[in-house]
């Protein structure tokens, strides 16, 4: 019995830890802005095609999901991840699609993927960042 409680406690702790590591990652502009204002952080807005854009997939895997970037982001930046999937099984809701397209009209008029824009917490553009296969450490230096 003690063994079962020990396992359940460990699983609970791991899920709480995983949740806290991702609290800076949003798909909603309103939620990202609220969090950014509360923590006085900038916003890294990422336009991605998660199921068709090879550089987008690589950026997410090699940078956004890297341990180094997660550590940096947790205390320094808010990620607003805007996905534009093409496969039917990955389609977003109409509301999410409309939300993402609205932000694309303002910040990604050229339709570039991945498009990475650094914004202040009022959604004012600071600069655009290019991903060209940099390591997570190199990308963190660009964001700083």
What report would you give on this structure?
This protein has 144 residues and is of the alpha/beta class. Helix content is 51%, strand content 18%. The protein is built from 6 helices and 5 strands; from the N terminus they run αβαβααβαββα. The protein has a 5-stranded mixed sheet with strand order 1-3-2-4-5. The relative contact order is 0.18.
List the helices and strands and how they pair.
Elements: H1 2-21, E1 25-26, H2 29-39, E2 42-48, H3 54-64, H4 67-76, E3 77-83, H5 94-107, E4 115-119, E5 125-129, H6 136-143
Parallel strand pairs: 1-3, 2-3
Antiparallel strand pairs: 2-4, 4-5
Query: What count of domains describes the coordinates?
Result: 1
Mean pLDDT: 88
Strand content: 15-25%
CATH architecture descriptor name: 3-Layer(aba) Sandwich
Termini separation (Å)? 50 Å
CATH superfamily: Glutaredoxin
Q: Supply the CATH class.
A: Alpha Beta
Q: Which stretches are poorly predicted, pLDDT < 50 over at least 5 residues? A: 2-21
Radius of gyration: 17 Å
| Largest sheet features | 5 strands, mixed
**Major β-sheet strand ordering:** 1-3-2-4-5
Q: Look at the helices and sheets and give the structural class.
A: alpha/beta
Outline, from the CA principal axes? globular
As for the CATH topology, it is Glutaredoxin
Write the H/E string, N to C: HEHEHHEHEEH
Helix tally equals 6
Helix content: 40-55%
